[in-house]
Design brief:
The chain is α+β, with helices and mostly antiparallel strands. It has 13 helices and 20 strands. The protein folds into two domains: about 160 residues, Uridine Diphospho-n-acetylenolpyruvylglucosamine Reductase, domain 3; about 190 residues, FAD-linked oxidase, cap domain/gating helix (Vanillyl-alcohol Oxidase, Chain A, domain 3), CATH 3.40.462. The longest helix is centred in the last third of the chain and has 25 residues. The chain is globular and about 65 Å long.
Length: about 475
């Protein structure tokens, strides 16, 4: 076990990509084994010391930022213990601190495919599970949740719980199970979750699996220390393209029609994103007002996939002359770098400005997306704020990033963020599609589920964490 008390070392554990300020901690503990995680939690629970679980620091909602107590980092739990391929698909057993990029490389060596493709390739697998992360390819493959076949979780009192999907199911909204000789009975929240891509609050459905309670709980119910993830066969070849459009409306319509073609991903970038990309790549067309990046698996021939997309692009006024196309692995990776460059650069700009970026992580039902897009466009133009709109348009899930220049603009951005949240809710959407609630979106979660729903979540937490030590300040106030 490593223990860090030096303020200069601790500083890096007091921040994540949210730019949330004011974090502080007594010390950082870095267990090197699962037994050490158990030992740390047992002592903390006995002494009622708050514990903030720390992943890689790529989170967008401030969940990693501690406000007192100790930090428990999973960085040394970094072993890929087993990876197996079957005739179709496979699985991997690994610890929570494995980097996404390392997992993807291990999968490639076995001709397997880990479907989660985040911007932050240095994120930890444990963090992805704790927030039910999704990323660009969730359009084809869905979020992290459906690939979690089992998890090992350290509960607040140090008990280690090994769960296999299918072993413990709720009866209606009541979950019962045993861990370390203790019986637990959990009354799940009664709320109905949004029918969209969602990572807001505790998962709660009739007859649900116990595994799903710990996916997306953001370190408030237990510390994920190990997981078994299902894998699929690696696509043999991937075709990808950047298509540039003369106006936003054409890009939105193309994205809607693209869903029927079932690509791996459909990503949107507004004109401000293109200007940012143009500073790095001078081939971005000056006339472009929006772009769609999409990936598709080549299951037949290159000519067949090209013909399919050329027809669809032509329908929306785009020629292949106005499209960047990648037909080999090298160019495809370059395209992914361009796609990731945009949000990464925005985060760097926000850090330099001294003001946090104000962003959204909203998803609506697909049939309501156009309403949401129009609301974004009109509101942003009216308020004349520096902004970038990009993201997973295939899932009706876009990120609006506003970069304020001063305190007055910051307050305006926060007010507009709230208006966007209310609009999403009015359309049947969620307040967080993939980043979680953390410490920065608790007010939004209350708008989604109401006081009753928040209290029901707190009761779940109290059943598993009687002294309320885990993730204090995340998801809701306790």
């Amino acid at each position: 076990m490593l223990i860090k008390k030096d303020p200069t070392i601790i500083q890096s554990y007091l921040e994540d990509s949210s730019n949330l300020k004011g974090g502080h901690t007594e010390r950082v503990v870095i267990p090197q084994t699962i037994d050490e995680v158990s030992s740390v939690l047992k002592e903390a629970d006995t002494k009622r010391v708050p514990v903030t679980v720390s992943g890689a620091g790529t989170g967008q909602a401030g969940g990693r930022v501690p406000f007192g107590g100790i930090v428990l980092s999973t960085e040394k739990l970094s072993a890929i213990k087993e990876i197996r391929k079957f005739d179709k698909g496979g699985y991997v057993v690994l610890e929570a601190g494995v980097l996404i990029k390392d997992l993807k490389e291990a999968c490639e060596q076995k001709e397997l495919f880990y479907t989660y493709d985040p911007t932050e390739q240095t994120a930890f697998v444990g963090g992805a599970i704790a927030t039910n992360a999704s990323g660009a390819r969730s359009f084809r493959y869905g979020p992290t949740r459906q690939y979690v076949k089992g998890i090992r979780v350290a509960l607040a009192d140090g008990s280690i719980l090994l769960l296999k999907r299918g072993e413990v199911k709720a009866k209606g909204r009541i979950l019962g199970f045993e861990a370390s000789g203790k019986r637990y009975k959990i009354n799940l929240p009664a709320y109905k979750m949004p029918d969209t891509k969602n990572s807001a609050g505790y998962y709660a459905k009739d007859d649900m699996d116990l595994v799903d309670l710990f996916v997306g709980q953001e370190g408030t119910l237990g510390v994920i220390v190990e997981a078994e993830l299902g894998l699929i066969d690696r696509p043999k070849e991937i075709f990808s393209a950047f298509a540039f459009f003369k106006d936003e409306s054409s890009a939105w319509s193309f994205a809607k029609d693209s869903r029927l073609a079932r690509p791996l991903s459909i990503e949107y970038f507004d004109v401000n994103c293109l200007k940012l990309l143009g500073e790095r790549d001078h081939n971005v067309p000056d006339s472009a007002k929006a772009a769609i990046f999409f990936e598709d698996e080549i299951t037949e021939t290159e000519d067949a996939v090209m013909a399919k997309w050329e027809k669809l692009l032509s329908k929306h006024g785009v020629s292949l002359d106005n499209t960047w196309v990648a037909m080999n692995e090298k160019t495809h990776r370059e395209f992914l770098d361009k796609r990731h460059f945009i949000p990464e650069t925005m985060s760097e700009m926000a850090k330099r400005s001294g003001f946090p970026k104000v962003s959204t992580d909203l998803a609506t039902p697909k049939e309501k997306l156009r309403d949401m897009l129009e609301f974004y466009k009109n509101s942003l133009e009216k308020n004349a704020l520096r902004h970038f709109v990009f993201g997973h348009i295939g899932d009706a899930h876009l990120h609006v990033n506003m970069l304020p220049a001063d305190q007055k603009e910051y307050e305006k951005c926060k007010n507009l963020q709230l208006e966007f949240v209310k609009k999403s809710l009015s359309l049947g959407g969620t307040v967080s599609a993939e980043h979680g609630i953390g410490k920065s979106k608790k007010g939004f979660l209350k708008l989604l589920y109401g006081e009753k729903g928040i209290n029901e979540m707190i009761e779940v937490k109290k059943t598993l964490d009687r002294n309320l030590i885990l993730g204090r300040g995340n998801v809701f106030d306790t």
